[in-house]
Design brief:
Mean pLDDT: 85
Number of helices: 3
CATH superfamily: Histidine kinase-like ATPase, C-terminal domain
Largest sheet: 5 strands, antiparallel
Radius of gyration: 16 Å
Shape: globular
Order of helices and strands: EHHEEHEE
Biased composition (Basic and acidic residues): 96-105
Protein name: ATP-binding protein
Strand content: 25-35%
Low-confidence stretches: 1-13
CATH topology: Heat Shock Protein 90
Number of strands: 5
CATH class: Alpha Beta
Region (Disordered): 88-109
Helix content: 25-40%
Keywords: ATP-binding, Kinase, Nucleotide-binding, Serine/threonine-protein kinase, Transferase
Structural class: alpha+beta
Domain Histidine kinase/HSP90-like ATPase: 24-135
Length: 145
């Protein structure tokens, strides 16, 4: 009898939750934590999916640090058989907004459209305590929605 894990099942380290201080290093810490989780997944994500997850983590945490002024944000990563969900919660009720990208390099505007393009689905849930921005990435790196 084999004890091997079926190829479509998630094995090691399927989720994590970490609270990050609002500081310039938050996105780098979040990328490292996400990378560690992704390395432990079985079966592994393909390179496009892994890169998309890390980029989305970086963008959502950067947006929470840059635009909300809240003291902390909480990063959650959850792996399922076909997807990885990235969620970032903060205490600001203001949702991300689409704006024209600043091609002069002074004001951004590229992050949220990029997240929406890389993810199979995105959502913003607001509550009395703030909001949670989530993005779902297909484990194959291709959008499923």
């Amino acid at each position: 009898m084999s004890s091997a894990t079926a190829p479509d099942r998630v094995s090691a380290a399927p989720s994590l939750v970490v609270t990050l201080e609002n500081c310039p290093e938050a996105a780098a810490v979040a990328r490292d934590v996400a990378g560690d989780l992704l390395k432990g997944l079985g079966p592994p994500l393909d390179r496009d999916a892994s890169d998309a997850v890390v980029l989305i983590v970086s963008e959502l945490v950067t947006n929470a640090v840059r635009h909300t002024g809240t003291p902390t944000c909480t990063l959650s990563l959850t792996a399922a058989a076909d997807t990885v969900t990235v969620s970032v919660a903060d205490s600001s009720p203001v949702p991300p907004r689409e704006r024209n990208p600043d091609v002069r390099g002074e004001g951004g505007g590229f992050g949220w459209p990029m997240v929406r393009r890389l993810a199979a689905a995105t959502s913003v849930e607001t509550t009395a305590r703030g909001k949670t921005v989530s993005a779902v990435v297909a484990r194959t790196g291709r959008a499923t929605a």
